[in-house]
Structure to design on (123 residues):
């Protein structure tokens, strides 16, 4: 599901926007491309420190949108490549994946798991 181009983008620094929506209100939180961990099974794992409003929305509606991009990767029209990701999300408060992520990102309090249902290159 994850193309070589997508993996190249998340290997470069850039901003990731995570959009959650519940109670007729969208909420956006940001993180960094290089914080995305790909366990090679159609999911993305993201270290979460704050993201409390995002967590509340996901408890009511687990559908999320993410955008990722990097100006360092060649896209369709030259430098700059981006993707729109759709998926379902949940927070992981403990366990083996939490332990693995905590070893990489000491600041996390939870892990945001996104199971990707769709990925589309936008740039």
């Amino acid at each position: 599901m994850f193309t070589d181009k997508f993996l190249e983008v998340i290997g470069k620094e850039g901003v990731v926007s995570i959009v959650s929506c519940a109670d007729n209100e969208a909420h956006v939180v940001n993180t960094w491309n290089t914080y995305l961990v790909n366990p090679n099974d159609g999911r993305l794992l993201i270290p979460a420190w704050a993201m409390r409003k995002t967590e509340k929305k996901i408890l009511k509606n687990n559908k999320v949108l993410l955008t990722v991009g990097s100006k360092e990767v060649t896209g369709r029209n030259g430098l700059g490549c981006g993707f729109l990701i759709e998926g379902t999300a949940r927070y992981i408060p403990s366990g083996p994946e939490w332990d693995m992520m905590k070893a990489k990102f000491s600041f996390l309090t939870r892990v945001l798991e996104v199971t990707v249902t769709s990925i589309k290159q936008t740039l």
